[in-house]
Design a protein that fits this description.
It comes from Candidatus Yanofskybacteria bacterium RIFCSPHIGHO2_01_FULL_45_42. By secondary structure, this protein is of the alpha+beta class. It is about 50% helix and about 15% strand.
């Protein structure tokens, strides 16, 4: 169990790492003025967080990086309790994407996938539940993340992307069980798919024209911007559910 102050510190570490992709030091936290605390006090709290598995140290002289456990804490305590409304410009682009598809479920899925991939910078797959209708886009977006400069990691993601159709029945059972409602976030090995066990997955179902149900899978590094991405998806499925 961590203290409220340590919880705040942990969320600041996660937030900072998401933005910078650089290990976070106690001096950086102090410099940015997140807390009215000395570097030594922050360092002690960071040591406590490390001892219980929330952060880890890549190099003896470097700062700390969040673990999957830290991202889960961040999603449960920050993302799930925040205003997820995207920017007005993003809302307009999502609305335009839905209109561009007219009342064709396949076309709507294509436009939605492209738009969300461009807005989020992540890979996106949309599907029509119960039919072999998939649209995949955004694998090139992931090249902007330093995580995917590792050849093996990029190949794992590419293999998952290429084999998505053949795995869809298995993935649908895991990501889109009948009881699932709203947005679900799978962090690291929570998704139980070997090729993407170092990444995070956000999924949701939504209504489409002609009584079809759509499914959306957004995939990116564990260091993705959860607030932004869940906000984009939340707005999108809300608009679709209201329309259809």
């Amino acid at each position: 169990m961590i203290t409220p102050r340590q919880a705040q510190l942990l969320c600041q570490i996660v937030d900072t790492y998401i933005k910078t992709a650089e290990p976070v030091s106690s001096k950086l936290i102090e410099k940015r003025g997140f807390f009215d605390l000395s570097s030594a006090t922050i360092r002690n709290d960071m040591s406590e967080l490390e001892s219980v598995g929330y952060i880890s140290q890549l190099h003896t002289s470097g700062g700390r990086v969040p673990t999957a456990k830290a991202y889960r804490f961040y999603v449960d305590n920050i993302v799930n309790r925040s205003d997820l409304t995207p920017s007005f410009e993003s809302q307009q682009r999502i609305n335009d994407a839905i209109k561009s598809g007219e009342i064709n479920p396949v076309e709507i899925n294509k436009f939605i996938a492209r738009t969300l991939s461009n807005l989020s910078g992540q890979a996106v797959i949309t599907a029509i539940v119960g039919r072999d209708e998939f649209y995949k886009t955004g694998i090139s977006q992931l090249l902007n993340f330093p995580e995917f400069r590792e050849f093996n990691r990029l190949m794992d993601m590419t293999n998952f992307f290429d084999g998505f159709e053949s795995m869809f029945d298995q993935l649908e059972r895991q990501f889109f069980d009948r009881a699932s409602v709203g947005i679900k976030v799978f962090i690291g090995r929570e998704n139980k798919v070997g090729e993407i066990e170092d990444e995070s997955v956000i999924t949701a179902k939504y209504q489409l024209p002609r009584h079809f149900t759509g499914s959306l899978t957004l995939i990116g590094p564990m260091r993705m911007d959860y607030l932004k991405n869940t906000g984009l998806i939340n707005y999108t499925i809300g608009q679709l559910n209201n329309l259809f």
